[in-house]
Amino acid sequence: MKQWLQIFLTAGLFIGVNQHVLAEDSLVDQRVEDELKTADQRFVITPHKVNYILPYTYNDSPNVDPYITLSKDENAEEVIDNAEAKFQISFKFPLWYNVFGDNGHLYFAYTNQSYWQVYNKEISSPFRETNHEPEMFMLFNNDWEVAGLRNSFWGVGAVHQSNGKSGSLSRSWNRLYGTMVFDRGPFALGLKAWWRIPEDEKETPDSPEGDDNPDIEDYMGNFEVTAAYGLDEHMFTLMARNNLQNPNKGSIEFTWSYPILGNLRLYTQYFNGYGESMIDYNHHNQRIGIGVSIGDIL
Q1: How far apart are CA 7 and CA 138, in angstroms?
Q2: Catalytic-role residue among 125, 132, 162, 170
């Protein structure tokens, strides 16, 4: 059973802890131990990526261009507030254990990330953007030693991501990816690389079929590196995404969290770069937010 539960690490190699992590403890092993406690409870939903709500975030340069184009109103840039709420809901569940003898475990996961103009009463506080990300992945247990780190897991998967909109606001892409996770004590490192599945070119700019964002890899890249470090009850994570080509845009995201009540943690997030959301894939954002998370997952 413990071997099976190790696969509850996400395909993107997101690692986390819900309780105190000692210096000699492994973040990966702690995650496995935490999920063992709920393994036999039929109605427990297992987290995939971190589940959080940031009631207040501030973006110094909101992306207004799509809305100006849509409304054809020169004053549209005044509609989007700098302050908004941001939240993420992410879960997964197993489809098939031990596909290849005693290894290889198939999962389905879904992540919803939303940006809510909750303080913008002038336009009735709409959801500015909501991204949907269903995925299927296969994860394998491993115990290789590489440069002093344990290569705990590797996996492959397929993921669709879109904002569920139409017309000029539509954004989407499909990818195949590979992942690996390494850990040693309070440090964990996740590597993820992907290949975008090609789409047909649009026949006209207004055509409902075809690629809505053919240059998305220039901004969202084709790989990301995510690191986590547990210091007593503090959890620090850093994500860097890039493509190492021209044009080279990329992004970084830094988070810090600290337990405040049970599995509820104070959660802060700083993002700088391109691709924070689908509608903003080619827009440079600098956002800082504060809120709470349930547990803490890289």
Answers
A1: 9
A2: 162
Of 251, 243, 296, 248, nearest in space to 270 by CA: 251
Q: What is the SS3 assignment for 123?
A: helix
- Whether 162 is a known active-site residue: answer yes
- Which CATH number is associated with domain 2-294? 2.40.230.10
pLDDT digits (tens, 9 = 90+) for 113-133: 999 999 999 989 999 999 999
Neighbours of 181 (CB within 10 A): 28
Cα–Cα separations (whole angstroms), residue 96 to 8, 32, 33, 103: 12, 18, 21, 11
Residues paired with residue 257 on neighbouring β-strands, in sequence order: 235, 267
Structure tokens at 193: 């690389």
What are the extents of the domains in the chain?
A: 2-294
96 neighbors 77 (Cβ within 8 angstroms): no
Identified catalytic residue from 132, 160, 234, 284: 160
Mean pLDDT along residues 34-55: 75
CA within 13 Å, CB half, 235: 29
What mean pLDDT value characterizes the chain?
85
**What is the three-class DSSP state of 282?**
coil
Burial class (CB in 10 A: 0-12, 13-18, 19+), 115: buried
Distance CA 231, CA 150 (A): 19
The 10 Å CB-count burial string (b at 16+, else e) for 128-158 is bbbbbbebebbbbbbeeeeeebbbbbbbebb
Q: Are 271 and 285 in contact (CB under 8 A)?
A: yes
Q: Which two tokens stand for residue 244?
A: 């190492």
